[in-house]
Structure formats: C-alpha cells, structure tokens
C-alpha cells in the first residue's frame, strides 16, 4: 500500500505582516462651559421702590460702591451775566447718616471733615470732596463691611453754587460686591430745598434692602427727624 502524501503547509505571506488595528477610542464628552454671571442693572424709578442685595455668609470685606454724579451747570452758562460774573461752580456733597448693628452711629460728609474709615469702624469711607466740579467720577462712598449695617441714609447736599437740584440732574449709582448696579435718578427735585435724602440701605434677614426715598429738606436735622437717627446738630463749615 502507498502511504498518503503529507499535506504541504500553506505558503508564507510575502513582505511585512500588517500592523494590528487599534480599536476605536471613544472621544471624551464635551466640557460644559462655565455658567455666565448674570449681572443686573436696575433703576429704582419711584419713591418707595426697593431691591435686595445678597451678602456672602461669614461677613468679611464685601465692598459696596456708591457714586454721586451730576451735571455742571457752569458749562451751560450763557449770556451777559455769566460773562460778567464768571461760571458758577456747584459744590454738591455726598454723605450718609449711619447706624451699625454694634450700636455705633455717626455722620460721614465733607461738612465737618469726617470722611470715615476703611479698616476700622464704621468701615465706611468717603473718597473726597469735589469742590470744583471738575472730577469726572463725582464723589464716592465705599461701604467695606455691609454686613455690619443696621441702617444707612445716603444724602446729597448743595453746599455752594446752584440753588436747587433741578439744574444739576443728580444721579446715584450703587454697585454691590458682585458687580450688580442700582441707579437712582434725582428726578423730582424741590427747587426750594438743598438737602436730598436719596435712599435708605437697611439690614434684612437675608442681606440688605435699598429703597429710593428722594425726599428734600432744608437742613440735616429735618432729615434726621424723618428717619429717626436722633443726632444733635450744630452749625458747621468746611
């Protein structure tokens, strides 16, 4: 009997073997964009209009920036009298009456020369007295520890110059630590009075509340009687 022939092995491939194919890699999920901060700009139109300001827990510095600005009527002066007498600059002062949760009370204003303090009580500071009307940024009040506020009344006083608020178109801007802005226009002026209680900032259970007042008085003591601080007043000068 003839033995069966051995089966020949299959031919070897010619050239280099193909590289192994890597399994497909799944692409990483898209990274979500960080949420955009929604900064608000709000105008308190009418007397009594209110808005809240949230504060971070734990106190510490959370500066609020309060800016008073106005139009310079001397730049609009025309006619023979303005040429003879020269331009009439207006000295419009920003200030506040305050009461802290600690019981401390006081008045910050250029009249009398108390500009407050940044790094110690009351943590409220007025930057300057713009007596020339030349400062483009007006006058600025900073509240560095709003968590210590019980009640603050922000006011403007015409110390010299124009006799009423109708000619200066005053406006107050309050900016909180998060960058939100609250605008208060002095748009219902009393031509016979030179003191304007612009707004009240008061403590609430959740933070602060800002309310538009825009009430006009002939002097500080009348405004004090209205808002109940209880100071003793005497005549002062710069």
Features:
about 35% strand; six-stranded mixed β-sheet; about 240 residues; 2 helices; single chain; six-stranded antiparallel β-sheet
SSE inventory with pairings:
Blueprint (H helix, E strand, L loop, with lengths): L40 E3 L6 E5 L9 E6 L10 H6 L5 E10 L4 E4 L15 E3 L12 E5 L5 E12 L10 E5 L5 E5 L9 E9 L3 E11 L2 H8 L11
Parallel strand pairs: 1-10
Antiparallel strand pairs: 2-12, 3-7, 3-9, 4-5, 4-8, 6-7, 8-11, 9-10, 11-12
How would you sum up this structure, described in words?
The protein has 238 residues and is mainly beta. It has helices at 80-85, 220-227, and strands at 41-43, 50-54, 64-69, 91-100, 105-108, 124-126, 139-143, 149-160, 171-175, 181-185, 195-203, 207-217. The strands form 2 sheets. Strands 1-10-9-3-7-6 form a 6-stranded mixed beta sheet, with no helix packed on it. A 6-stranded antiparallel beta sheet has the order 2-12-11-8-4-5. The protein is elongated, with a radius of gyration of 34 Å. The model is unreliable at 79-87 (pLDDT under 50).
Structure summarized in a few sentences:
This protein is mostly beta strands. The protein is built from 2 helices and 12 strands; from the N terminus they run βββαβββββββββα. The strands form 2 sheets. Strands 1-10-9-3-7-6 form a 6-stranded mixed beta sheet, with no helix packed on it. It has a 6-stranded antiparallel beta sheet with strand order 2-12-11-8-4-5.
Radius of gyration: 34 Å
Order of helices and strands: EEEHEEEEEEEEEH
How many E strands? 12
Task: Calculate the mean pLDDT score and round it.
Answer: 82
Distance between the termini: 136 Å
Structural class: mainly beta
Shape: elongated
Low-confidence stretches: 79-87
Share of helical residues: under 10%
Q: How many distinct helices?
A: 2
Task: Give the strand content.
Answer: 25-35%
Give the spatial strand order of the biggest sheet: 1-10-9-3-7-6
Largest sheet: 6 strands, mixed
């Amino acid at each position: 009997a003839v033995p069966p022939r051995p089966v020949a092995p299959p031919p070897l491939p010619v050239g280099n073997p193909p590289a192994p194919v890597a399994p497909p890699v799944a692409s990483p999920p898209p990274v979500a964009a960080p949420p955009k901060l929604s900064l608000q700009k709000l105008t308190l139109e009418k007397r009594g209009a209110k808005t809240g300001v949230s504060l971070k827990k734990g106190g510490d510095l959370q500066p609020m920036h309060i800016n008073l600005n106005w139009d310079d009527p001397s730049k609009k002066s025309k006619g023979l009298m303005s040429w003879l007498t020269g331009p009439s600059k207006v000295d419009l002062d920003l200030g506040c009456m305050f009461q802290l949760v600690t019981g401390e009370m006081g008045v910050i204003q250029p009249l009398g020369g108390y500009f407050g303090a940044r790094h110690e009580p009351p943590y409220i500071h007025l930057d300057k007295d713009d007596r020339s009307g030349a400062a483009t940024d007006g006058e600025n009040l900073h509240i560095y520890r709003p968590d210590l506020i019980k009640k603050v009344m922000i006011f403007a006083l015409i110390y010299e110059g124009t006799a009423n608020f109708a000619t200066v178109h005053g406006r107050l801007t309050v900016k909180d630590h998060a960058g939100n802005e609250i605008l208060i226009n002095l748009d219902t002026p009393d031509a016979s009075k030179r003191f304007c209680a612009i707004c009240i900032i008061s403590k609430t259970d959740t933070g602060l509340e800002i309310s538009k007042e825009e009430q006009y008085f002939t002097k500080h003591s009348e405004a004090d009687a209205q808002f109940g601080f209880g100071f003793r007043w005497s005549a002062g000068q710069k």
